[in-house]
Give the backbone structure.
Amino acid sequence: MDDKCQNPSNTQRKTKLWGKDFILIMLATACVGAGNFFFMTTLPIYAQRLTGSTTIAGLMTAILTISALIARPISGILVDKYSRVKIAIIGASIVCISILGYNFGYILVVLILFRILHGLGFGMHSTATLTAATDIVPASRRMEGIGYLGLFNIITMALGPAFALYLISAREDGFSILFLIAGALALVAVIANFNVTYEKNLQNNKSEVYDININKEEKGKHKSGTILGFEKTGLKMALVLFIYAFAQSTINTHIAVYAQSKGLGNIGLFFTMGAAAMFIGRLFGGRIGDRFGPDVILIPALLVASFNIFIIGHIDSTFALVLVGFPSGLVQSLIIPTMNVIIVNNAPPEVHGSANGTFYAALDMGLGSGALFWGFIADMAGYSRVYATALFLPLLALLLYLFFEKRQFIKAWIGNRG
């Protein structure tokens, strides 16, 4: 008898997206991410009040980024070798302990220690949960699923900083309450991760339920392996992502200072428009990518990203800048998850953890080093030079993408022309 007749739910299982485990992973991701967005603006203020130093205030953000970056390749190896869920539980637990520990950060060294732990835990958790989502989401709907995974994070990104700033300004004990709320959310993430059961199901019937196995013929197509924890097949596309993120940092990090330098006033609506666009992009972009392929997403999005940077460099009104916030947020929400899926799809399932660690590392390094580099250029030559230079980077990323992913097509086309 045909296998499909024996198990008519096979196809349904392999294309189902909204299962219990996927929803729990979304919840855990959002709860841990909330702590980042709560403290993005408030922990520097806390550190400045503690020390009186703006340098230390800025260091709080850098410490989290560097710690998470260090954790990602190591976490990728651990996730591949042991368990996605267990690493996620450990990561969320470390985040919970570190956030509650901020309450005892009256001494700078203690505050820095807990900030390092927060970054390590966040790096572990985000790598593990993204890899778990990669396992659970059917390959045919991977762009859609990874896009949805970030929806809750977009909501917390839009509301978290404003809520945190309101709380610390409205109450004398605002920081203590904020630490407790964020710690409680991290605890919710721990509980949610505990209830993710797909790995237990895999032990019983791996191939029927989830699309993470490949046959021997398919496995031979992949060149598995890692370099310093980074997945080999993902390095080329990680370079493309790094270049794009390097350019995007001119917006994510410097747009507010740039607007002040031009006398444009409060541009809070720029970020609101961007968050709304990111929500829309995450909601629909993955479906388009799954149906028509990543080229349909990446090629126009990278072109628009370059044009956005050009427009920002020539804007003279707050209204115009706010309008640009929409396409800026939209292309970011399309490019980043699409690049994530390409890096994962190019890697064999047994190193998906390292592939996701490679993705996150490229994104973090691009945004982090870009923020520092463009700040230096702005001090030396002004923001007009920053945006006049950065607009070429998405175009470079596009050319490299076409070269890396379409070499055989280009060679065949040139041969036919000859």
